[in-house]
Each structure stands twice: as C-alpha cells, then as structure tokens.
Amino acid sequence: MMTNDSIMNTPSAAPETIEDRHARRRERTRQAILEAARIVMGRSGAVAATIADITRQADVGVGTFYLHFRDKEEVTRTILMQGMEHLHATIASQVRDVPLERSLTATIRATCDATYANRDLFSIAYSNGMFIAFALDARERLATFLTRTLEEARTLGLIEADQDVGLLAGLITGMIDYSVLQWLEHTMPDPQRVAAQIICLLRGGLPMALLAD
Amino acid sequence: MMTNDSIMNTPSAAPETIEDRHARRRERTRQAILEAARIVMGRSGAVAATIADITRQADVGVGTFYLHFRDKEEVTRTILMQGMEHLHATIASQVRDVPLERSLTATIRATCDATYANRDLFSIAYSNGMFIAFALDARERLATFLTRTLEEARTLGLIEADQDVGLLAGLITGMIDYSVLQWLEHTMPDPQRVAAQIICLLRGGLPMALLAD
Amino acid sequence: MMTNDSIMNTPSAAPETIEDRHARRRERTRQAILEAARIVMGRSGAVAATIADITRQADVGVGTFYLHFRDKEEVTRTILMQGMEHLHATIASQVRDVPLERSLTATIRATCDATYANRDLFSIAYSNGMFIAFALDARERLATFLTRTLEEARTLGLIEADQDVGLLAGLITGMIDYSVLQWLEHTMPDPQRVAAQIICLLRGGLPMALLAD
Amino acid sequence: MMTNDSIMNTPSAAPETIEDRHARRRERTRQAILEAARIVMGRSGAVAATIADITRQADVGVGTFYLHFRDKEEVTRTILMQGMEHLHATIASQVRDVPLERSLTATIRATCDATYANRDLFSIAYSNGMFIAFALDARERLATFLTRTLEEARTLGLIEADQDVGLLAGLITGMIDYSVLQWLEHTMPDPQRVAAQIICLLRGGLPMALLAD
DNA sequence: TATGAATGAGTATTCATTCAT
DNA sequence: CATGAATGAATACTCATTCAT
After folding, report:
1. Rounded to an integer, what distance in angstroms lies between the CA atom of residue D154 and that of residue B141?
2. What pLDDT was estimated at residue A201?
3. Are residues C97 and C60 in the same domain?
C-alpha cells in the first residue's frame, strides 16, 4: 500500500542516490526552459524570440540552455513535438471507445476544443516557415484518423464504395483548420460553435440548386 | 505647323521626354527587383532571403534595392499586395456574369486553380509570422465573396432562412485552404480534383448514420 | 558716356560669344551649389549634410555637383576659403586708414560684428574635425593683424619693449573667440556688447589685489 | 563566532562571491573599451573611429562593445563626461583653500596645465559637431568658477560695483581657450607661458593711447 | 552641360554559440 | 551542473561617386 511503500522507499527500497537528485534537478531545469520557450515564442514568434529572452523567462543562465538543447531549432522542435503529441493524446482519449456512429461528431468536437486550447503551438509553427511542417503534420494526423473512421463506415456500407474517403477526410480537416488560422489573430469564432456548424454542413450538404455544373 | 505635326505624330510621337525614359528605366528596375524577390522568397522564405540574394537574382546593385524600397518588409508587403490583388482579379474575372446557380461551383473551381498557380505567394506569407495576415486576408476575401453568393441564394429561398451563411462560407473556404497548405510542401492533390470533391461533398453531405449526436 | 558705351558694347566691342553664355551659366550653377551647401551645412553640419541634400537645395542634379567639385571635401573647403576671405576683407575694409590709436578698438569691433554675421562658417568648420584648421586659420589672421598693430605701437614707444606682442595678440583673439563658440549654440551675447567689454578690460586690467602670486 | 571571524577576516576575506568576480571582469573590460576609444578617437576623431578600430585596440570582440555601450554615441559621451569630470576635479583640488587674492592666478595656472594634459578630450569633442557641447560646457564651468571668484572680490570692494563680472569671466576663459584650440594642432605654446601672459595682461591692461574711441 | 538611376564599399548592430570560472 | 561575459559571423542599410543618356 501507498503508506507502506513510501516508508520503505525512503532509505532502502529505491536507493535514492545523489544521481537521482541530480537527474530530477536537471529535468526540472529542462522543463523550465521548455515552458519558458513556449511562452516567449507563443508571444512573439519563433524567429523574434532570442535565447536570452527564453533563459530570462526561465530564470536560468544562457549557457544552461545549451546544456539541454543543441540550439534554438532543437528547442522549438521539442516544444512542437511534445505539444502536438499531447494535443493528439487529448483528442484520442476523448474519442476512444466512442461507437462508430458518434465517432465523427466526437472527433470534430474534441479537435476543435483541444486545438483552440493549444493554439499557441500553431502560432509558433506558423511564425517560422521552418516549422510549418508541424502544423501540416497535425492536420495529417487528424485526416488520417478521420480517414480510418470513414473507411470503417464504408466497410459497413454506411458510405458508398466509390467515395474518396481520404480527400473527404482532408476537407473536414480543412474546415476545422479554417478556425485554427482565424484563432492566430482573433479568439473568435468559439470552438464549439465551429464544431456544430461543421456537423450541420456534413449532415445536410447544400441545396442542389446552388451547385449546378 | 503644330496641327500638321500633331496629325503626323498621331500614335507614336507623344513628346517622349527624357523624364519618360528615366521613369521607364526606373520602373523596369523596380519590376526586376520585385520579380527577383518573389522568386528568391518563394524558394527559401521571406526570412532566409537576404537583400544580397535578391539583388543578385535581379542583377542589380544592393544600393539600387534601397532606391526602390525602404526595406525588406516593404518589398515583401508589395509582392504580397500586388500578387494577392492579381489573384483576386483573376478569380473575379472568371466568376463575373456567371448565373447564381453555377456561381458557387465556378468560384470554387476558379479559386482552386488560381491559388495553385500562385502558391508561392502563400509560401512567402507563411514563411514569416509577420505576413500571415496576407494569407488570412485572402481567405477573408474568398469567404466574403462566398457569403454574398449564399446570402443571395437565401434571399431567393434556395437556402433555409436560419442558416449562418457566414460560417458556412468560412467552412467552404477552409476546405480550399486545406489544399493551399498541402501545396506548400507537395504538389498534390491536383486543384481540379480538390474542387470536384468539395462540390461533391457540398452536394450530398454525409450519411446521417455517421453523424449521430 | 554710359549710354554710348552700352550701345557700342552690345554687338561688337565684346563679341559676346556663345562660350561666354556657357561660362556664365556654368558659373551661376557653381554659385548655386556653393550657396546651397553653405545653407545645408550651416543647418545640419558638414558631416550630416549629404550631396543629395545639397543638390536638392540648389535645384540641380546630383551629377551636376561632380561637374563642379571633385568631392564633398572640395566644396566644403571652397565654402570655407571663400567665406573666410570675405570675412577678412570685410574687416580689413573697416579698419583701413584708421589711425593707430583707434586701430585696436576698431579691429575688435569690426571683427565681432563680421564674425557674428558669418557664424555659420564657424559652425561648418567646427562640425567636422577635418575643417577646424579653417577656424584656427581665421584666428591666426586676426592674431597676426593685431600683432602688427601692437608692434607698430611698440616701435612708437606706446608699449614697453619687453612685451610679447604675439601672445598678447593671441589673448585678445581668444577673448573674441569666446563669443564665436558661444554663438554656435546661442545667439547671445550681442557682438557689440562683447567688443565693449573686451576694450574695457584691455583699458583697465584688473586690480592688483586680485592677482597676487 | 561572528566577531572572531570578522576579526580574522579583517582585510581580505570579504565573502568574495562569484558575482563579484564577474562584476570585476565586466568592469575591467568596460574600462579597456573606454581607454581604447579615447586613444583611437583622440588620434583620428570621433567620426572616423569605427567600432572595429576601438575593439581591436581594446583587444575584445566587436559584440563585446555592445554588451557595454548602446552605440558609438554612448561611448563618446561617456568618455567626455568622465574625462571632463576628472579635469574639473583636478583643477578644483588645486584651487581649493587658496586665499582670494591668489585664487584667480591659481585657477588660471591650474586650468592651463590640466587642459593641456587632457587636450585629447577637446580633440574628441571638436571632431564631431555633435559633441561640441562638451567643450562649451567645460568653458561654462570655468567661467562660472571665475565668476564666483570675481563676485566675491566685488563684494569685498576689490572690484568696482558696476563691472559685468560674468562677461569678464568669459573673456578670461576665452584667453585660456585660445590655447586649447592651438593645442589641437600644435603643442605650442607652453601652458605655463600662456598662464603667465594672461596674468600679466590682466594686471596691466594696455596703454590708453592704444585704445582711443 | 546637365541629369539622376545605379553602384558597392564600408559600418553599425544583432544574436546564436562558446568557454573559463 | 550552472553561469553569463565574450565572441564574431552575418546582414541591413547609407551615401559618395560614376556613367549612360
């Protein structure tokens, strides 16, 4: 049990060497730098943010930065990888175990919410052409996920066999992305409202009279 | 005599002063710089491109650059403004005089084509956080144009009165934009294919069975 | 007679060739540049003034400048030489034929007035370390002139034989110069007031009680 | 115990933190740059001196310069402020506690000596129109100091009540300044000789026969 | 002769990165 | 491991000077 464990751990069970302490301290510094970098870059972009800005925000020396990261590119890459991973995991956890007929709506809603909450990541990714790939990759992942859902539906005969589910998934992704880019400069529109409208459009399409060839 | 002269000169002999020659030369240089900047920035991004890169490509001296533009920001802004204006005009010319029932499809097709042809502009706009506004503005214009079309349709009763045509227009814009961002790194998918799929999705929507609440 | 002369001169007496016209025009342009340079440099200093500033003020092309002057240094040098020459001549004309006993006072008064009127020359000379020699030279000329006066006076026994008239002349020069430098930044004190005070000091010296060793 | 410790530590063992060391190193570099700048600017003027010249002379990197000074103007300003302050203090220390009847002579002699020793400062101040104010300010300080002395003398009745002691002080200042400007290009005349002559002139003035109106 | 567009050498300045302490 | 002073390569920008028209 917890209490027991704690007591036992103290001196003997996990030897708790001085190295552990060092490792913990090292990790704390590393996280402080990452967090500081995300704040500073989210505020002024990945290009404008200087190493000095970041270490000042993290309250460590400039040299310390280079003990943890090879260069500015590595820290940016790490922020984006970690952040995107977390974003993805958040969405996945909300969609897992949802039955197929609600999978699409759940995914759209979860993605809108999580993306809005992490819009600083996209701000960083778009602030330097070098890192746009991270934004594109996040879209790819969403598209891939949606593709799997649509494929499953097609297997079950819910969607006609001749549909290009890959591109369909891309277009749904694009609709969500419309708002991501809006959020870089405004806070509107509200993520839940966007999700509702996308679902609405997908449900009904538009009147044929509007879409003559 | 004056009259006689005038008549003889008719098409060609506008007095052709020395100032005209200067102005023409100036303009030629200016355009050479703009074109060079678009090429260089489109290739390596607005941040990485140096003034020296641009003037080398334009085959003029560095000082000449500053005779025509205050700084790098101004030349970038000019490229984007001119380019976006041209993009917009191209689309408009292809959509003008199209009857309402084909307006939506025509707009989607024209936008996909023209945007693909000018994807280097978006590459420049996204390569520096400073200029993303230009990409967002291009999307705004498209959304606004689509909004007008949808509003007209609603007035005629083709669309139900309670639809939020603004957000609808935004979502269609987002679908096109999905491809713009893809095009920054790949040349696929083909713009006409994208247009076709968007129109197809708008026509039919998705099966209700996939969109339970 | 005037009238006769004029008539005779017109076509024949001085042939008035086309070269004369060119020469006159050339000289007019040259003077326009010199005047413009004096105005611009007097306003913002010899270093800050650009060739473009000067030619804009003179309303000629930049290239024209180089048809008349080798470089910026030459035009500055010319302004200072011409100006200082004129300054010197002005003073000399007011002091010529003044009897010895009034020579010193007349020189001091004339110098204060003329220097004040041409203080922009000193502004130019002091604005670039390269041209300070011109200011020093103007002082030298004054000191030399004063030295001659004092030597004459010594020859006539008006001054004791053991006086160092050269240094004495320098000190009088220094007193005038005090104001020249003041005038670079203020317009006070009034030149005539300065002259009066210098003369007053020279007349009476200071009480011995103040100058113990 | 504390007391004991303190006693034992007495002269050397102030805790001597790592910050102290950093601060000392920083200060040493800063002084090296200041000294280098004074040497280089004194030699070739404040305009001609480049940052690279200064850092080469100081044997530090170019970037280091900007770690200590915002720009060339700031370093020049600092040199002139520090230097003028030191010049002023030197003179003041030699004049302090001198009785009134010798104050004037002592001030003149001390100023001539100290100014000669620091003539590079004036060389810098006059080499860029931007910094002439520093030379003018040094003259103002001398004039102010002399004014106070003369006012005291007037209070004691040593000088007639109707004298303009301010302008008188200015003229004495001007005489010293005559030599400062000479020293920018020559090393003559010797400062002590100048002082002696000024005092001599102030003692006797010039014969009235030379100063008729 | 006059013009002004074009030139490019020269400088100030920034900032990622290193290294002695 | 942590520090921050020092470094210098890289770049934007200026302006005296040239030269084709």
Report:
1. 83
2. 85
3. no
Are D109 and D49 part of one and the same domain? no
Q: Considering only CB atoms, which chain C residues are within 8 Å of D150? A: 210
C167 has pLDDT over 60: yes
Check whether residue C141 and residue C199 sit in a common domain. yes
**What sections of A59-164 are H helices per DSSP?**
62-68, 72-95, 100-117, 119-127, 132-155
Could you say which residues 151-180 of protein chain A have a Cβ atom less than 7 A away from any atom in strand F?
A: none
The CA distance from D16 to C46, in Å, is 52
* Chain C: closest CA distance from residue D9 (Å): 51
For position A197, what pLDDT does the model report?
Answer: 87
Minimal Cα distance from B41: which residue of A? A129
Domain that holds residue C121: 80-206
Residue A4 lies in a domain: no
CATH number at residue C133: 1.10.357.10
DSSP codes, D62-75: HHHHHHH-SSHHHH
CA distance A154 to A162: 9
Task: Output the pLDDT for position B4.
Answer: 47
Nearest CA in chain A to B139: A178
Q: Which residues of B touch A173 (CB under 8 A)?
A: 178
Q: Which residue has the higher pLDDT, C31 or C156?
A: C31
Are C21 and C56 in a shared domain? yes
Whether C134 has a pLDDT exceeding 70, the answer reads yes
User: How many structural domains compose chain D?
Assistant: 2
B90 domain-assigned: yes
Question: Which of C169, C197, C168 lies closest to C109, judged by CA?
Answer: C197
> How far from the centroid of its chain's Cα atoms is residue A193's Cα?
20
Look at residue D132 and tell me if it is in a domain: yes
Q: Indicate if CB(A64) is under 7 A from strand F.
A: yes
A20-24, C13-17, C98-102, D207-211: least confidently modelled range = C13-17
**Among C142-151, C202-211, D174-183, which is the least confidently predicted range?**
C202-211
B3 — pLDDT class (breaks 50, 70, 90): very low
In a domain, B11, yes or no: no
Q: Which nucleotides of E are covered by protein (CB under 7 A)?
A: 1-21
- Chain F bases near protein Cβ (<7 Å): 1-21
Can you give the pTM of this predicted structure? 0.87
C64 and C167 part of one domain? no
Please judge whether D135 and C198 are an interchain contact, meaning their C-beta atoms are less than 8 angstroms apart. no
Q: Which residues in D lie closer than 8 A to residue C46 (C-beta atoms)?
A: 129
Q: CA at B134, C1' at E11: how many angstroms apart?
A: 34
